[in-house]
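[09:14] KT: can someone run the structure on this one? pasting the chain below
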Amino acid sequence: MNVKQRNDYLISLAAAALRNKDVTFAKENGILLSYDGKVASFGVSVAMSGLKPTLAFYLAKEKDEDSKKDKSSDVVNLSKIVGVISWMINNDVQFARLQGEDYTSARKMLNTVVSLEDTARLSAIRKEVLDCAIALKQMVRTYNLYDHD
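[09:31] RB: done, structure tokens below
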């Protein structure tokens, strides 16, 4: 599969993930505008800070957001972004299923990444996460973006 075909495939996975009500942050009327920036910054964070710190940060925020008393719809749940990416990886037949690792949820993806000691394997996962993040960013940009409910 060439690069263009691979990108098209990942974009189709991102589209499917955003339609999947179990993992998505998309709603019928579009995507909260603040998710657009957070999705775009995810890939940059992985590239600049590394995969493990980025996953830890995005998933640590999950606890902060759950504990907030104000459950307004404007709150961006960063763990949902990681959840969509883990769903994409888990459903990427060319990657996840061939490796025998668990990407069925954001938490399991973090556990898999943290437990890896093989730097070559970690590098391959980092590339897959970045590729999925880019495809997700491209797909998010096709949705209507709104400021609040």
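[09:33] KT: thanks! The first strand starts at residue 31 and ends at 32.
[09:34] RB: yep, looked fine to me
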